[in-house]
Amino acid sequence: TWLWMVAQSQAPASLLRWFKMMSARPEVANVMSSLPEESKAKAAAPQSKAKEKKEESAGGKFVELPGAKMGEVVVRFPPEASGFLHVGHAKAALLNNYYKESFQGKLIMRFDDTNPAKEKEEYEEVILEDLKMLQVRYDYFSRTSDHFETILKYCDKLLKEGKAYVDDTDAETMKTERDAMTKSKNWNNSPQKNIAMWEEMKKGSEAGTKCAVRAKINMESPNGCLRDPTIYRCKPEPHPSTGTKYKVYPTYDFACPIVDSVEGVTHALRTTEYMDRDDQFNWFIDALGLRKPHIWAYARLNLTNTVMSKRKLTWLVDEGAVDGWDDPRLPTVRGVIRRGLTVEALKQFIIAQGSSRSVVFMEWDKIWAFNKKVLDPIVARHTTVDQVYNVPVLVAGAKLSSHMSAKHPKNPDVGEKTVWTGPRLIIDGADAEQLKEGENATFINWGNLMIKKVNKKDGKVVSVDAEQNTDNKDFKKTLKVTWLCDEQEKSPSTPAILVYYDHIISKAILDKDDDFKKFIEPSSKHEFEMLGDPELKTLKKGDMIQVQRRGYFICDVEYRPYNPCV
Predict the structure, then answer these.
(1) CA angle 174, 175, 178 (to 5 degrees)
(2) What values do phi and psi take at 274, rounded to 5?
(3) Residue 19: pLDDT above 70?
(4) Where are the alpha helices (DSSP H) in 46-85?
(5) pLDDT in tens, 132-176
(6) What distance in Å separates the CA atoms of residue 119 and residue 111, rounded to the nearest whole number?
(7) Are 283 and 226 in contact (CB under 8 A)?
């Protein structure tokens, strides 16, 4: 459709200028010329599209929690300390924080450290820092390992009451039997035999390492989660928090309901993928005679053109496909915040989905649309000119002078900046190609200039002659141009690099059998050298701005004067 609009001279002027500017870049031209003809996009007339049905999750709302009482709600965020948080985790954290604040309740930050092999102490600090970035404030901090002794006693209780048994069946056979709904050879063990085998597990003996404790629920249940799930494994290895005290560790499914109940959680928020485990959760609570928290399910956050799996994200980092865990192309909390996503926008995006249970893939554009709404009214406007292809504009009769101009056209609270004007300006080459002799062009933050002559060499614009016409205030149909005063003493330009990112995964939604490595976009980072206005030198790391006609940006590296001695 776009190429059709260009061919029919129906493309918006501002977009056409940007398109021509990008097409003129050597790196873009080289890639386009190397493509086979059949791979190149063809001009096509726009087709009418049926209005898309609005997804429930796009405009969801939060529902009242069952049994919730003002001031008495306790929720929890229980991540595993084995990696960096991503936006899926962020949704869980922000949802829990939202309900905590809505009901003036409490939020427990609990590390699920039931698996000593996965628990990494350094990731605990990382996750707590990520929560600070998300402005999530918890009231209590705990680890599942704080309750290991309690969980152990509850396992003893189930064994003694015949509600659990110790099974030394190998893992493969156990899986086969569970699939076939066949009871284990150990299903009818006496409590005495189970206790004896349990003691071997707790010692970490060779015999004990071959055993697992299984809850005796219902091997004939159509719900596979109820077919005597494993609740304890023998793993004689040190734990970061408890050292070598224990040789057995509970599974998450067994520990979670116990710790939720013991810590006073009133509402356990879980993604819909755990719904099959709800009956299991409640069985443990009932079998142990514990207080029952309410379970509330919500849809996990799925985003297009990315991966959320810890294994896949780790591969991208380790193989150098990205520049680290805070790479702006990754869906990690650090990545999206470094890219410029505000916490407020992320909160609004999560709230817009509400606690819907509809499982859909959301496009990144929706998140960035929320971000634009947050940034547009408050960020300063700045100007850059292409360092590679810029053209001088010679303004007849203009004197070097300065005036104050608003940093934001509609928000005076953002402040003012000094704008220098003079006899020599520079503009983007793509803009120079759009200028027409005998017509006004509006130079933003100055006014109208009459274009007298567009000088070309070999078909390319090399300079422009103009004269002031700032008394003319008719800006409606004029070409809008961003520019800099080419006066390095009074208005020294700031060297800047604008970085644009594409999706790291080229396919919107990966199929179950897709190898994600085959869809990694090899050139998803694009850097453009620019000359910026003098005000850019004042930016601090993390400051967000709008570069006029180029988009919203966040300062990643502060300006430092060049030192030729270094």
Answers:
(1) 85
(2) -90, 0
(3) yes
(4) none
(5) 999 999 999 999 999 999 999 999 999 999 999 999 999 999 999
(6) 9
(7) yes
The Cα–Cα gap between 316 and 292 comes to 41
The DSSP call for residue 223 is: S
Q: What b-and-e string marks burial along 447-483, b requiring 16 or more CB atoms within 10 Å of the CB?
A: bbbbbeebeeeeeebeebbbebeeeeeeeeeebebbb
Question: In the numeric block, which tokens belong to residue 259?
Answer: 């710790």
Contact 562, 548 (CB under 8 A): no
Give the closest residue to 427 by CA, choosing from 386, 398, 461, 381: 386
Q: Which long-range contacts link 59-63 to residues 24+ away (Cβ below 8 Å)?
A: 59/352, 59/354, 60/352, 60/353, 60/354, 60/355, 60/356, 60/358, 61/354, 62/98, 62/99, 62/102, 62/351, 62/354, 62/355, 63/354, 63/355
Q: Which two tokens stand for residue 111?
A: 């590390």
Residue 234 corresponds to which tokens in the numbers above?
Answer: 């023998």
CB distance 428 to 390 below 8 Å: yes
- 308 burial via Cβ count (<10 Å: 0-12, 13-18, 19+): middle
Helix (H) or strand (E) holding 142: strand 140-143
The 10s digit of each residue's pLDDT in 88-99 is 999 999 999 999
CA distance 122 to 270: 26
HSE toward the beta carbon, residue 394, CA cutoff 13 A = 9
Task: Supply φ then ψ for residue 409, to 5 degrees.
Answer: -65, -20
Residues paired with residue 212 on neighbouring β-strands, in sequence order:
167, 233
Residue 561 tokens read as 């004067």
Residue linked to tokens 């396992």: 155
- Residue 155 in tokens: 């396992």
Half-sphere exposure of 26 (CA within 13 A, CB side): 5
The number of C-alpha atoms within 13 Å of 308 and in the hemisphere containing its C-beta is 15
E strands, 19-78, where?
A: 74-77
> CB–CB of 385/482 below 8 Å?
yes
Strands (E), 235-343: 248-250, 267-271, 294-298, 302-303
Sheet containing 494-501, strands listed edge to edge, beginning at the edge strand earlier in sequence: 384-386, 525-532, 494-501
Q: What pLDDT, in 10s, does the model give residues 520-558?
A: 998 999 999 999 999 999 999 999 999 999 999 999 999
- Note the pLDDT of residue 52: 31
431, two tokens:
């803009």
Other CB atoms within 10 Å distance of the CB of residue 18: 16
The DSSP secondary structure of 441-467, one letter per residue, reads EEETTTEEEEEEEEEEETTEEEEEEEE
Overall size of the chain counted in residues: 566
How many whole angstroms separate alpha carbon 296 and alpha carbon 290? 18
Residue appearing with tokens 């453009």: 528
Q: Which of 405, 432, 439, 438 is nearest to 420 (CA)?
A: 405
pTM of the model: 0.82
